[in-house]
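Batch manifest line 322
LIGAND: acetyl coenzyme *A
JOB: complex structure
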Amino acid sequence: MIYSRITGTGGYLPEKIMTNGELERIVDTSDEWIKTRTGIIKRHIAAENETTCDLAEHAALKAIAASGINPGKIDLIIIGTTTPDVIFPSTACLLQKRLGIHGCPAFDVQAVCTGFIYALDIADKFIRTGAATTALVIGAETLSRILDWTDRSTCVLFGDGAGAVILEASPEPGIMSSHLHADGEYNELLQVPAGISRYPEKLKNGTAFIQMQGNEVFKVAVNTLGRIVDETLEANHLEKEDIDWLVPHQANTRIISATAKKLNMSMDRVILTVDQHGNTSAASVPLALDVAVRDGRIQRGDTLLLEAFGGGLTWGATLVKY
Ligand code: ACO
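JOB STATUS: finished
ARTIFACT:
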């Protein structure tokens, strides 16, 4: 039996920091409102000439170094992103060139905030079937580019960043199971309702922005994440107390607390980084994972539950024996 194991992690946040105080000067909001409703203290914003591929490259190089592999060994590159550098080629192909890798499959996956969980599951399936041995899996976003900086209901929530993992074939688990879902019925709750083919003029004049019915999304998120926790535990014949660490999508501390409560988990077993960078969409789970691996909380042999929820609507979870 071939499994896939995470052998290296990396994360990167752009240098420029935007605090809640700075947002108070742009829109009618307050540090107090943002902190109590979301848990966010600050977010990082990509420089004008800095792209999603730049952030992905930084995170990838750190993950490659942590795993100790030669980049030439990588035979699959997948990037979860909703904010690619250009319409095409994919950001994964742009990164492939920078890493000096030739010939292996490289593609992007678009599942908004669930993008990394989708990408990880696809890479795991490539490895389990023998189609790849060493995958570079990334979540990377420059969501600041699609924010309406006059809309207080969205601009305070998001930030830019990238997280990466190296996934290698192994006789030992590894990724135990992944559970992906989507329901397009709810597409209008969270969307950028313009693009290449629909209202292309908004893309051209730079007004293709995120729109969100926040409190509706909040309710669906809490319900679906609760269900997916049960689904993942049942599939692996595990009890709630078997999970060592919850590594959730970092959108809102209140949503994360509700999922932890569902797992009877105290918050000291939850990796929480949303305060430091806001919602970085597909980058948030690998960023949080990298922080907890590097500070020594997550140890080899620990059982991790990774989960995410985002536009689509999409949601998913992965159980990992680290
Ligand atoms: N500052 C001050 N007041 C604000 C702000 C702000 N930045 N934003 C909204 N308000 C006001 C509203 O206008 C409203 O005022 P009213 O009562 O006078 O009408 C009040 O605050 C409450 O608004 P709600 O939207 O009901 O606030 P809520 O407690 O639901 O918090 C939030 C909003 C933080 C957006 C929350 O709903 C949330 O986190 N939703 C889920 C987001 C999410 O997880 N998205 C999924 C992933 S994202 C992706 O896939 C790209």
